[in-house]
Amino acid sequence: MDEMSAIDSYLQSLKRELTNTAVKNEPNIDQENEAAFAQEFIRHYIDGPAMSMLPAVRFDNLRRCIEDAIARDVPGDLIETGVWRGGATIFMRAVLRAHGVTNRTVWVADSFEGLPEPDPEKFPSEARMHGSAVMQRRYKHFAVGLDEVRHNFEAFGLLDEQVRFLKGWFKDTLPSAPIEALAVMRLDGDYYESTMDALTGLYDKLSPGGYAIIDDYREDSWTACRQAVDEFRRQRGIKEPMISVDSKCYYWQRLE
Fold first, then answer.
1. Which residues, other chains included, contact 255 with Cβ-Cβ below 8 Å and sequence gap of 6+?
2. 243 forms bridges with which residues in the sheet?
3. Long-range CB contact pairs, 30-37, < 8 A, 24+
4. Closest listed residue to residue 149, CA positions, set 141, 158, 140
5. What's 132's DSSP letter?
6. 34-45, pLDDT tens digit by residue?
7. What pLDDT is recorded for position 92?
8. With contact defined as beta carbons under 8 Å apart, do 44 and 192 qualify?
9. CATH architecture of 52-253
10. CA 165 to CA 171: how far, in whole Å?
């Protein structure tokens, strides 16, 4: 097996393990029956061993963005804002290791206490979701502690000096984070304010040629994430086209 085949085999296997799809099919995000999807989602991800809730296609997108940045020597580190059990950031670190990259850091940014409470007057759909029984009792506001995420990195042999954690609300941690440049920023904060805080705190550090990935851009039924992204892009005069990863996740490449 040649080097590239070995890298692909390793990353494909890791993706399946992180998403609990080695022997099971992932939930269909475009399923019309939302209640049925929610039940399947809970069984597969929340109650299962998955380290990430991302569909496989989003892992493939993340890998392409990282490998393109490496190939073109786009300066900067990698970050995910909102990491749950850490799966996507574990994968980020694995991609760097697979390609022998030693001069980039993976930043793991999360409150590690769950989602912030939305303003019910400004963001009523988010507030309804935040206060719903399923969010509180089943999802538990996606709260996963820092020690558990560190343990998950260790379980895959990927916790080292190239992984750094940023614990706290994005509005407090990101503006002062000691990040010089970013090649890939993956935003998964779910809500308007978390998304806007991440864009405001990080986008100026995204290198030309780097990628901004918005996990919940088209989750319009329960979040104002798209509103935050559209407002930020309009305010900053960002013209690069939004590209779909799937029906909900979008990204763009910063050109200047």
1. 208, 209, 240
2. 251
3. 30/246, 30/247
4. 158
5. S
6. 788 888 999 999
7. 98
8. no
9. 3-Layer(aba) Sandwich (3.40)
10. 15
